[in-house]
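Sequence only, no structure available. Ideas?
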Amino acid sequence: MDELFDAGDPATEKHLRMLATDLIAWFTTIGKDGAPRAVPVWFFWDEGRIYVLSEPGTVKVANIRRDPRVLMHLNADGPHGDDVLVFRGTVEITDGGVTEWLERFREPYEAKYREAIAAYGMPLEKMAEVFSTLITFTPTHKLGW
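Reply:
I predicted one. Tokens follow.
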């Protein structure tokens, strides 16, 4: 099991389920004015890493290039807003890395986002062209309950 998740913690199963099934995460970067900037993103969790596909010219990509401090959290759904999962970590940007990444993760990514991709109205191959920058976020700290 990933080092951030304690098998003895009762919230671990819930958190891993949230990472597998939640469609939106909030990705927070530091803007050039020093203020935090949070945007909703699609994400994919695999073996301790969170992957985000992005258009190369976005503010979040520019912010990461300038300051790699990133915070990512899932929506606090739960019956009382109590399903909380927040990560801090390191981030890498791979320009043009999405096509290669999709060779490995196409099936599970399509399974997770099938309805969202259909609603977006852009086939995955076209999305890989448009959202061609791969952001790889490796959580180093977790806050959750």
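The domain at 11-144 is CATH 2.30.110.10 (Pnp Oxidase; Chain A).
Hope that gets you unstuck.
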